[in-house]
């Protein structure tokens, strides 16, 4: 059997939907023994078939996100079920969950409880917007996070509804972020023997993914401007997308059709079955929704739709994203001094380590700024370094002298 880099590590995957399971799957792909801990009725994704691809016994959504795992179906709301999990925690290296804020504590599987059982445990807590702050209880749904990230307004025609990505972008990016955070925390444990709490949220993950674009805006001062021509999911039932309102745009994700019909005054929706007509009447539903949403402002619709329990959200540009209270609360953006560029404000880090926080020790280097330094550390003598520089084998750029 081929040796894999994470052979011997055990992961307890208590996550649902896409981001958490995808992260755990990647750990399994590298050899970790991933135990998917799911309810006795099955994880939510087993019952939600993206694109209507239901499969035979396992739908494609679940199939695609849960390979290299073993399944343990257990009722964590029962005392015995909880004891099963707590005993497993003593054998685990990683515990991964994306419960709603407060649920882990209510279940008795929060970091404080589990780390007391296993101090070497890497505990990964994933959330939509952060585990505290003004937006902690908003739905962490991919489309709504795309809309809030500012990215939609970097594509499409000026004045037309922004276009979402053609994939579950925020879920995928958050999965990758959690995956790399687990690896880093395991490396820290290898060096020190201690586990730690790792937090990952979708808002910070999608914001920091836009490192170049947002830095052009925040550090370069170049605003987003869309032209007259477009510059740039068929697997989600209607209505799902961004819509123009009387004064802006609105993101709307998979509402119950009769409920939506009552809110926006569209009688044709009242007798529809969301899981049937949402697929078979996609274009008609989209057009009817778009026509109705034009009648009122974004703020008015957000109030009414949210009150009805419908997933919706504003479509941010970069300025609104940068000034969002949750972004400020999370400390998503960082500032530092660069020797040639001055004070720089840029997206920071998509994860939070309890004991080994990420920091910025230096900004982007000049070309060859550290050539001599690196070569010296590698064992080259000053004469050898000088010869390499003179022959053009390596190059070096010196920092400008500081201004007196």
TrEMBL record:
GO molecular function annotation: CoA-transferase activity
InterPro entries: CoA-transferase_III_domain, CoA-Trfase_fam_III, CoA-Trfase_III_dom3_sf, CoA-Trfase_III_dom_1_sf
SUPFAM superfamilies in UniProt: CoA-transferase family III (CaiB/BaiF)
Domain of life per record: Bacteria
Protein name per the record: CoA transferase
Keywords noted in UniProt: Transferase
């Amino acid at each position: 059997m081929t040796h894999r880099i994470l052979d011997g590590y055990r992961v307890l995957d208590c996550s649902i939907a896409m981001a958490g399971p995808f992260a755990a799957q990647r750990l399994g792909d590298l050899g970790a023994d991933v135990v998917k801990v799911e309810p006795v009725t099955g994880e939510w994704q087993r019952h939600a078939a993206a694109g209507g691809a239901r499969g035979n016994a396992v739908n494609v959504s679940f199939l695609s996100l849960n390979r290299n795992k073993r399944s343990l179906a257990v009722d964590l709301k029962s005392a015995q079920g909880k004891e099963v999990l707590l005993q497993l925690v003593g054998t685990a290296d990683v515990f991964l969950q994306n419960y709603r804020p407060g649920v882990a504590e209510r279940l008795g599987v929060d970091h404080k409880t589990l780390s007391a059982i296993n101090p070497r445990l890497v505990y990964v807590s994933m959330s939509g917007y952060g585990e505290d702050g003004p937006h902690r209880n908003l739905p962490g749904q991919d489309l709504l996070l795309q809309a809030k990230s500012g990215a939609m307004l970097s594509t499409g025609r000026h004045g037309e509804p922004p276009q979402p990505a053609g994939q579950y972008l925020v879920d995928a990016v958050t999965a990758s972020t959690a995956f790399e955070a687990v690896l880093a925390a395991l490396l820290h444990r290898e060096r020190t023997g201690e586990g730690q709490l790792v937090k990952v949220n979708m808002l910070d993950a999608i914001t920091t993914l836009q490192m170049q674009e947002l830095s052009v805006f925040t550090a370069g001062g170049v605003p987003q401007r869309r032209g007259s021509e477009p510059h740039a999911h068929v697997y989600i039932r209607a209505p799902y997308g961004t819509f123009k309102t009387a004064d802006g745009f609105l993101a709307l994700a998979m509402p119950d059709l009769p409920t939506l019909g009552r809110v926006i005054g569209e009688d044709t929706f009242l007798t529809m079955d969301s899981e049937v007509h949402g697929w078979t009447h996609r274009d008609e539903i989209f057009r009817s929704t778009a026509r109705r949403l034009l009648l009122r402002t974004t703020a008015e619709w957000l109030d009414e739709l949210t009150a009805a329990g419908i997933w919706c959200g504003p479509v941010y540009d970069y300025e609104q994203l940068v000034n969002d209270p949750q972004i400020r609360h999370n400390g998503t953006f960082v500032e530092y001094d660069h020797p040639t560029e001055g004070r720089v404000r840029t997206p920071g880090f998509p994860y939070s380590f309890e004991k080994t926080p990420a920091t910025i020790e230096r900004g982007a280097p000049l070309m060859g700024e550290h050539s001599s330094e690196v070569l010296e550390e590698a064992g080259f003598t000053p004469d050898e370094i000088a010869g390499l520089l003179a022959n053009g084998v390596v190059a070096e750029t010196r920092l400008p002298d500081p201004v007196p």
